[in-house]
Amino acid sequence: MNRIIECIPNISEGRDKTKIDAIASVVETVPGVMLLDVDPGASTNRTVITFAGEPEAVCEAAFLLIQKAAETIDMREHSGEHPRQGATDVCPLVPIAGVTNEECVALARALAERVGKELEIPVYCYEYAAFKEERANLANCRKGEYEALEKITTAEWKPDFGPTVVTDKVRRSGITTIGAREFLVAYNVNLNSTSTRRANAIAFDIREAGRVLTDPKTGKNLLDESGEPVRQPGTLKAVKGIGWYIAEYGIAQLSLNLTNIRVTPVHTAFEEAVNKAAERGIRVTGSELVGLIPKQSLLDAADYYLQKQQRSLGISEKEKMKIAVKSLGLDDLAPFRVEDKVIEYIIDKKLNSASQLVKMDLVAFADETASESPAPGGGSVSAYVGALGVSLGTMVANLSSHKRGWDDRWEEFSQCAVKGMGYQKELLWLVDEDTRSFNRIMDAFGLPKATDSEKAARAQAIEEASKYAMEIPLRTAKVAYESMSVMKDMVERGNPNSVTDAGVGALCARTAVLGAIMNVRINASGIKDKAFTDRLLAEAAELEKNAETLEREIRDAVAQKM
Predict the structure, then answer these.
(1) Which of 310, 309, 238 has its CA nearest to residue 268?
(2) Active site residue 434
(3) 112 and 217: one domain?
(4) CB atoms near residue 5 (< 10 Å)
């Protein structure tokens, strides 16, 4: 349900810890943004800062960081080994979850415009956010580095946003390049060899750039008609790589950069490494992830290996993580903890989401429900009952996919289980969202009402919060009703030994529908917009009738099967 992007600004300061800390610290002044990493380099005099969170919050944090860097760093005094042209040299936005590349482009351009206008810093947009093809490449934008600052006055390199004259303020800040790009995964593959030469050969087999061809007689590089080296491309797109020897582990590795994991996912790179190594008599023993990875990458890997085994994909996220780690050998060199390596899990942990109802154990949830607090109430419990119901239906689908003699039907049951897990995921989200919707009403009632404008604002906030508190249980009822299709399907064609489990799941789902609709009706009482309440109440009545009818059909089918 969360929308997450990552931002990785590179600032032109890598030696003064006080300055670095001052710049990085502004990130977490924005609610909902998590500072994930600060990596300074003395020789490069450059620091890579990584943070993530909701898109709008991350863009606000990025703006504040660029502002602080411009106040703290004077580019007229900067020197270092890494190419640079600004206090905040580059600031990419990367989609992680629930956000498209197109949305990241819009966010990057809006940020660039704000930086240019409000901070009076020249800005180029690069990668996917580039307005001109030649500016997509960061190296082109940074050509000449800070010393070529005067280029902003030329027609060819006029900034996309910000000043086009070199003022003292611009001399201090330099130029910032802002863009949107894919997530880059730094990924090492472990070999049962100590040979850097052979590791390099495998890397050249795989990487997109491949290898330069040589004349077998002279050993010299082959050249084309224009005098350029002739290359034999590697097998994988969007992959860079070399081979090296790691003394710490006593093994050779393939050091791969996966620059677009939509084009070449992690599991694809791993499998290709296994195949190419085997061709050279070398075995892959595992792999190593350097830095962080989006959750979906490991889920995709798990699905790939489950499909190869002809096993159901409709299992829990936790189980899929175990399968991904073991299949890729991510724990070959050291323990691999997904909670420390998956971006979404790190954010979840830092936001202290352990206070969520769905993070509680069964006893704690029951005790919290029984306490004096009015929330969680019937809406949250209805959503949870619905989640339990569809979990039973999903269980029957998974049992059916592994039933002896039904091996050729594993995929049809896997599809049903995946469908069930989708309903389960949404219902579990609704457990907490129902309580959050109640809290929104309480917050609205707590708003000030001393003046006429405050009274009007408070009344409007109460109305909007009350509408949302009516919409959420209606959504619970809809999802719970839709989930009954899983139980009906499994009663009709699933494992006959588990038919009553699917039947109980249907009873739970019907209870979830009826319970949620009670909350829809009670929450309608305080809403002034009668057209709104009439529409939702009509939907609720139809859902209630349909759920009771479907539940009777499923019960009758269960009775016939027994």
Answers:
(1) 238
(2) yes
(3) no
(4) 27
With H, G, I as helix, E, B as strand and everything else as coil, classify residue 223: strand
Question: What's the number of domains the chain is made of?
Answer: 3
Co-location of 492 and 521 in the same domain: yes
The answer to whether the Cα torsion of 19, 24, 25, 27 is positive or negative is: positive
Catalytic, out of 160, 303, 432, 434:
434
- The model carries a pTM of 0.81
Q: Give the per-residue pLDDT at 353.
A: 54
Q: Name the average pLDDT for the chain.
A: 93
Both structure tokens of 165: 């004259």
Residue with tokens 């996917």: 128
- Report whether pLDDT(1) > 50: no
- Please check whether residues 165 and 18 belong to one and the same domain: yes
* Cβ atoms 66, 119 nearer than 8 A: yes
Residues 127 and 207 placed together within one structural domain of the fold: no
Burial, 322: exposed, middle or buried (Cβ in 10 Å; 0-12, 13-18, 19+)? middle
SS3 content of the chain, % helix, strand, coil (to 5): 55, 15, 30
Is 402 annotated as catalytic?
Answer: no
Is residue 98 scored above 60 in pLDDT? yes
| Active-site hit among 16, 74, 82, 331 | 82
Residues 54 and 147 both lie in one domain: yes
